[in-house]
Specification:
Blueprint (H helix, E strand, L loop, with lengths): L3 E5 L2 H10 L1 H12 L11 E8 L6 H5 L9 E2 L3 E2 L10 H17 L6 E9 L4 E9 L5 E8 L6 H14 L8 H16 L7 E9 L4 E9 L5 E8 L7 H7 L9 H12 L4 E8 L10 E10 L3 E11 L4 E11 L8 E13 L11 E14 L7 E14 L11 E17 L2 E18 L9 E13 L10 E11 L9 E13 L4 E14 L4 H5 L9 H13 L20 E2 L10 H7 L8 E2 L4 E14 L2 E13 L13 E8 L6 E8 L25 E7 L4
Parallel strand pairs: 1-5, 2-6, 7-9, 10-12
Antiparallel strand pairs: 3-4, 5-6, 8-9, 11-12, 13-14, 14-15, 15-16, 16-17, 17-18, 18-19, 19-20, 20-21, 21-22, 22-23, 23-26, 24-25, 26-27, 27-28, 28-29, 29-30
């Protein structure tokens, strides 16, 4: 059979296909006017490449190994839009068939054949390529032997043998990549246990007829070594002592490559150096005293940084104009301490917002001042201490459609967090004590006389397990986060509760340019000194009182909220969850006036916060070109006014899409979420919820803008 087969699509099917997507073709033609390349005369563009017969090996992995690729598509619909066309080359396809067979052999399929490359002509400019594969049966590992273990102590020999059998499982297909990696894995098991000069040779005997492979790993461990003197290059004017403390490599200790890796990461975590290389100096022949010196090469980054900028926030709740100013020193008063100051002054243009385009008649000043001092090497080499004071003044704008002459409450808030954090491999933990003092005042109108200064005190434990391949653009792996707070009791303050929120995120690559990202989170708040008024939802007997005000005020500061750019993107910030008439928002309205003013066009209920949270999200991320990427997503979430009450009938499902553009500070992200009709609260809204604000023209969407991925 020939290497290539040529087929022409039937004319009737082609006409039907064109007529069924005429509107798409028109859109593609319009987009092509603004910058699409054309297919060169006499050449053919590749519209699609598929692999037939790939059952035991993923067809996507096969496509990753060949040079013939399909033309990039905008959102998977328009071939060639914005990007260059992929041009068909018969000679390249011929070599691709050989590449496919080589790839299969590397996976243990020695009898695999790329039987044909079929070229289906769509029209005089476009083709579709199909590669047909016959996989055959793989070579399987029959036996794995590790020689040279008799020269090792039994505990070390057992670890080495276990790593060898784990890397090369008997009965598994004989894959060249796994075979090569096994030698490195076994060697690493030795170098982590003092054998700096360990060497591992690997050999395989493959019986193609019997479809089996015998593997032999020969270990030459050498003598156990210890760390020697440490030499540091590239410090410049920076102090050496904090670096040595972070390295935590003591001469005379048993050699370990794992300790070298941990030392390198610890110095990077200081935040002072752009690059760090910690490597052993292994002279040949080895030194007679079995001492291994360590070389550390550093490249310092900028020690001081000044930031200045500004921005505008325009959403369903408010419009604000703000500046952003910051200063940072990574060697504050010596010792590689980090000190940061961030100031965000701004004004709210009230009552201008997305749903109310009108000239503002009030200017509400706001500010956020945040400081942080970090001391490396606190108590022990790799534990950091931190102090994080804040002072914030902000308007409490919760209602996207407030009634006329509504009161505007503000809070002046002082916070401070004091604690320690520590990283161990992929595990991170931070333990701190936090004190929060919030003083209410009135921007517009008078302050509710039942309002008073709020004091909240709690320790917080944050832990993470990070198995992602990249923190900014993860493609595979899992990330687990948990937050635990215990307020009140021996720690003082007006709130007594326990608050916990675990969060799990997973990332799966679907192809070279597509990643599936998923997130799930639950939260439980168990209050002991407040919450009765919020749980009872006693709106019908509204009477301002200190007890009711205190209950709602504490719930607002301690409760859960959902909705917004990093949560449920079909809703505005705090848009998902219980709503109620909060007494300190409308302090001077009698119950009769309240009943009249808060009906029809005006719903005076505002978010109160809740005691049980769940959130779930799925997102597919598409790499487009350069710094540009796209995403489609579906988010769901709920916040209940009751404790331990996960309401799966309250879906609040929203789906949508957005774009990302990479910048030095992270990807700038724009998302549009659409609330799916009938999939918000099954059976209709409950009495504790408020219908969300719609976009102009009554469209049930929300637009969010942020920096960094949603998760």
């Amino acid at each position: 059979m020939t290497a290539f087969e040529r087929a022409t699509m039937p004319g009737s099917r082609s006409r039907s296909r064109v007529s069924s997507v005429a509107w798409l073709a028109g859109a593609a033609a319009l987009l092509s006017v603004v910058g699409c390349n054309r297919v060169p005369p006499g050449r053919l563009a590749v519209d699609d490449v598929t692999v037939r017969g790939a059952k035991k090996v993923d067809g996507g992995d096969v496509l990753d190994k060949i040079a013939t690729t399909e033309s990039p598509r905008l959102l998977g619909l328009f071939a060639g839009v914005i990007y260059d066309y992929s041009i068909f080359d018969r000679n390249v396809l011929q070599r691709d068939l050989a590449r496919v067979e080589a790839f299969y052999r590397s996976r243990g399929y020695y009898d695999a054949h790329a039987r044909a490359g079929r070229v289906h002509v769509i029209d005089d400019k476009h083709v579709r390529v199909e590669i047909v594969v016959e996989e055959g049966e793989p070579i399987r590992i029959e036996r794995v032997r590790t020689l040279g273990l008799d020269r090792l102590p039994k505990p070390v020999a057992d670890v080495v043998e276990r790593e060898a059998t784990r890397a090369l499982r008997e009965g598994a297909p004989f894959e060249e990549e796994a075979f090569d990696k096994a030698a490195g894995t076994v060697r690493r098991a030795l170098t982590d246990r003092g054998y700096a000069y360990a060497n591992v040779e690997h050999d395989a005997t493959v019986d193609i007829v019997a479809k089996k492979a015998d593997i032999v790993l020969t270990v030459s461990p050498g003598e156990p070594c210890v760390f020697g003197p440490i030499t540091i290059e590239g410090l410049g004017d920076l102090p050496e002592r904090p670096v040595l403390r972070a390295l935590d490599l003591v001469p005379g200790r048993p050699f370990s490559e794992a300790m070298l890796d941990a030392a390198q990461q610890a110095v990077l975590d200081l935040g002072v150096f752009a690059s760090v290389d910690v490597s052993p100096d292994l002279p040949l022949p080895p030194r007679s005293d079995h001492v291994v010196p360590v070389k550390v090469k550093l490249e310092a980054s900028r020690i001081r940084t000044i930031r200045a900028g500004g921005g505008i926030e325009f959403d369903a709740l408010k419009t604000d104009v703000h500046g952003i100013f910051g200063w940072e020193s990574r060697n504050f008063l010596g010792g590689l301490r980090t000190f940061r100051v961030n100031l965000k002054p701004g004004v709210v243009l009230y009552p201008l917002r997305v749903s109310s385009i009108e000239l503002p008649d009030r200017v509400l000043p706001e500010e956020r001042l945040r400081l942080e001092l970090r001391q490396p090497g606190f108590i022990e080499a790799r534990t950091n201490a931190f102090v994080r004071p804040e002072f914030n003044v902000q308007a409490l704008l919760l209602d996207p459609n407030p009634p006329p002459n509504a009161k505007v409450l503000g809070y002046a808030e002082a916070r401070n967090g004091v604690g320690i954090d520590r990283t161990y491999k992929r595990f991170f933990a931070a333990l701190s004590h936090n004190l929060q003092v919030a003083y209410p005042f009135a921007y517009v109108g008078e302050r509710d006389p039942t309002l008073g200064t709020l004091i909240i005190s709690y320790p917080e434990l944050i832990t993470t397990l990070d198995f992602r391949d990249d923190r900014v653009h993860p493609r595979r792996g899992i990330y687990i986060l948990d937050t635990l707070q215990v307020a009140g009791g021996p720690f003082g303050g007006q709130a007594a509760d326990v608050k916990v929120q675990p969060d799990v995120r997973a990332y799966i690559p679907l192809s070279r340019n597509i990643v599936l990202a998923m997130r799930a989170s639950v939260g439980f708040l168990l209050p002991r000194s407040y919450g009765d008024q919020v749980r009872s939802r006693s709106t019908s007997v509204f009477e301002p009182s200190e007890a009711r005000t205190r209950d709602y005020q504490l719930t607002f500061f301690r409760g859960f909220f959902s909705g917004g750019p990093t949560s449920n993107r079909g809703y505005p910030l705090r848009g998902v969850g219980p709503h109620d008439i909060v007494p300190f928002i409308s302090p001077d309205v009698e119950i009769q006036r309240l009943a009249i003013a808060c009906t029809g066009e005006f719903d005076c209920r505002t978010p109160t916060g809740g005691f049980t949270l769940w959130e779930a999200s799925t997102e597919v991320r598409f790499k487009v070109t350069g710094p540009l990427s796209l995403a489609t997503f579906c988010d769901a979430s709920d916040v209940s006014p009751r404790t331990t009450n996960i309401r799966l009938t309250h879906l609040h499902l929203s789906c949508g899409g957005g774009g990302r553009y990479d910048t030095p500070v992270g990807p700038v992200r724009v998302d549009i979420g659409y609330r799916i009709p009938g999939m918000q609260v099954l059976g209709g809204l409950t009495s504790d919820e408020r219908a969300p604000q719609t976009f102009p023209f009554g469209i049930p969407i929300a637009v969010s803008l942020g920096i960094g991925e949603a998760y």
